[in-house]
Amino acid sequence: MDFEFVTDVTGQPLAKCDIESEAFGDWLSHDIGTDRAAITALINTLQQVLDRQRADYQYNGKIYHLIIADDEVEIFHNNNELAHSEFEDEDLDGPVAGCGLVECKHLLENWLAFIG
Fold it and tell me: Fewer CB within 10 Å, N or C, the chain?
């Protein structure tokens, strides 16, 4: 997954991911934001799944929820809200994006470093 982090004109951090993973960027920017505790907890959980200390995990946010299982992370819209109109045509019952555990952990570690 390719990504970059920038700040908007108000100084808020924004994550931009490649087209196949753009929901992860939206999730970081608008759902997780600068919640360092949540980010650290997710990194630790991903490591537990990688180490086979935990089988799976679900994280429910304001806009998205993640399912971490079977060496993969899938991101879904919450049933009650759409993040942006660009995703309206997508099948809301299925994931809007997915990636590997290591890839997601790398993204979160870089986001945490970026937001300081």
Answer: C
Strand partners, 68: 57, 73
Count, in order, helices (H) and strands (E) of the chain. 3, 6
Cα separation values, 99 from 11, 18, 54, 110, Å = 28, 12, 18, 16
φ/ψ (deg, to 5) at 42 = -65, -40
Which residue has 């949540």 as its token pair? 38
Q: Which of 15-24, 38-47, 62-71, 73-82 bottoms out in mean pLDDT, i.e. has the lowest?
A: 73-82
Instruction: Please provide residue 19's backbone torsions phi and psi, each rounded to the nearest 5 degrees.
Output: -55, -40
Q: Is 24 exposed, middle or buried (0-12, 13-18, 19+ CB in 10 A)?
A: buried
Where exactly are the structural domains of the chain?
A: 3-115
Report the alpha-carbon distance of residue 98 to residue 79 in Å, rounded. 18
**pTM assigned to the model:** 0.85
